[in-house]
Design a protein that fits this description.
By secondary structure, this protein is mainly α. The protein contains seven helices and no strands. Helix 1 crosses helix 3, helix 2 packs across helix 3 and helix 5 packs across helix 7. The chain is elongated and about 60 Å long. 22% of the residues are buried.
Length: 172
């Protein structure tokens, strides 16, 4: 197969999966800008390996694994902790109280590996074994990460669903 044919084949694959990859990236990162960067990095890595992987049976699984590994590697990187701001300017932290009940908000609060596990298990609908393979860890690790993540999500969502009360302390 010539280079043009390979490039056309990759272009078809990438354009058909772009929306799906971007959604998975958003669920992992919790931010559309980071999702775009993560998707782009994943596409670049897939293109670099296309000559080896084009004939694979499960390209979606490979793409998903590349994305999760890229996401986790970026989370471990010390560059992620660099905050750019003007000299003397203090970072402003304002909680978004309106979005506190949103599942995406609770999901973004999870540690990276727990978030990746939940996204792979429940959004991508992978089995425990498939998730372990994608994350290069044991099935026991997937089970414990999933259990911890679900407990954290339940607690975060439950703690903010208390009924509203009036000034006199009577439930509305």
């Amino acid at each position: 197969m010539g280079r043009r044919d390979r490039d056309a084949e990759f272009g078809e694959f990438a354009s058909s999966r772009m929306s799906w990859l971007r959604t998975v990236a958003y669920l992992l990162s919790g931010d559309w800008h980071q999702a775009d960067d993560l998707t782009q990095t994943t596409i670049i890595k897939l293109y670099g390996a296309w000559h080896r992987i084009a004939d694979m049976e499960n390209l979606d699984g490979y793409a998903r694994t590349v994305m999760v590994n890229t996401f986790l590697a970026e989370r471990r990187s010390p560059w992620r902790r660099v905050l750019l701001r003007s000299a003397g300017e203090e970072p402003v932290v304002q909680p978004d109280l309106d979005a506190i009940l949103d599942l995406r908000q609770a999901l973004s609060a999870l540690p990276a590996r727990q978030r990746a596990t939940v996204v792979l298990r429940y959004y991508c609908d992978l089995s425990v074994e498939q998730t372990a393979d994608a994350m290069k860890c044991s099935t026991g690790n997937v089970k414990s990460q999933t259990a911890r993540a679900l407990d954290t999500l339940r607690h975060a969502l439950r703690s903010h669903r208390q009924p509203a009360t009036s000034r006199e302390g009577v439930s509305r």
